[in-house]
Amino acid sequence: MRADRLVSLVLLLRQRGRLTADTLARELEVSTRTVLRDIEALSAAGVPVYAERGRHGGFALLPGFRTELTGLNQDEALALLTAGSGRGEQAFGLGSALASAMRKVVDALPENHQATAGDAARRFLVEPETDLLSRRPATQEVPGTTMTEIRRAVLAGHKLRIHYTATDQPPRWRTVDPIGLVTVRDRGYLLATRSGADRTYRLSRVLAAEELPEPAQRPNAVDLDRVWRERCARFLSGGHIAVLVRVNPERREELLNTVVAVRAAEPDADGWLRLEVTFQDLRHAEWALWQLSTDAEALAPTSLRTALHNRAAEIATRYEATVPDKSL
User: Fold this and answer.
1) What pTM value is reported for the model?
2) Which residue of 12, 52, 242, 268 has the lowest C-beta tally within 10 Å?
3) Which one-letter DSSP state was computed for residue 34?
4) More confident position, 12 or 96
5) How far apart are CA 28 and CA 9, in angstroms?
6) The CA-based dihedral angle spanning residues 280, 282, 283, 288, taken in that order and rounded to the nearest 10 degrees
């Protein structure tokens, strides 16, 4: 909305001082022409914004101008800035809104606290791209227009029509009753019901979405954390097998690309990683760990260790031939 953009423009000038039209356009994700129109609108509304010409010119506010965005103390603002400094900007297509909100948070502080709060937030790092053990998997992107439709339906309580690609199936349209959105390990999920049955859809598999005008059939209140825990428990108990495995850190990503879910992970004593993961069944687990050769060891269950031992013994027996005759 234009009103929100105008507020963001004023806050950018307050917090950073003189900025060029190109810089403002990049920050606000609009064209330079739109920024110039917004500057004119602010001037017409009595906001003391002025232009400085020349090589180092740009737009600035008269000294002492202050907006009326108050109500946060320093610790409250620090908490919000820290939360916003992580990977939340990638969640549910809210990156621009988060950036705008952070500008308002900073401006809500007394002037003598603004610099210290900003510096303090930079001292905290939440969910970085890389951890001590390995690189995080790539974030699965969802088109902005698709995410907007999904988010609107969830918040408005309307039915949602999605073009969804299930595993090993061609895409098809489904009409669902959205309950909420969940993001975990950089993967987003839509929790919904369809014809009264619980459904969980991975957002990266939604090719298109359309908010419908009909109200969704769902309770007025929801404990999303409880719903997610219950669905995870049902999913992991549905014929899947839990495996405790040690793996060479260099092969961690290969392992994680084959599992259904990761339930726990911690470093092992010798520099390897110890993970509790879930596979579809015993055959799936045996196949996945066999691909890693000696860079992985199944610790439990015993049935998996036995299956891998038997396979290795069979291979060893097959290739236990006499030394080839070099004269041939």
Assistant:
1) 0.49
2) 52
3) H
4) 12
5) 8
6) 70
Dist CA 277 CA 299 (whole Å): 12
What's the mean pLDDT when you consider all of the chain?
Answer: 79
Contacts 24+ apart (CB under 8 A), 62-67: 65/14, 66/14, 67/7, 67/10, 67/11, 67/14, 67/107
- Tokens 């908010």, residue? 211
Place of tokens 């069944």: 281
Which residue has tokens 């339930």?
A: 263
Listing from the earlier edge strand, what are the strands of the sheet with 273-279?
Answer: 261-267, 273-279, 241-247, 296-300
The per-residue pLDDT for range 195-230, each reduced to its tens digit, is 889 999 988 889 999 999 999 999 888 888 888 888
Residue 210 to residue 174: CA distance in whole angstroms: 10
**CA 11, CA 266: separation in Å to the nearest integer?**
43
Distance in angstroms (rounded) separating the CA atoms of residues 296 and 251 = 8
* DSSP string across 77-105: HHHHHHHHTSSGGGGGG-HHHHHHHHHHH
Per-residue CA distances from 121 to 74, 83, 170, 284 (Å): 11, 9, 46, 44
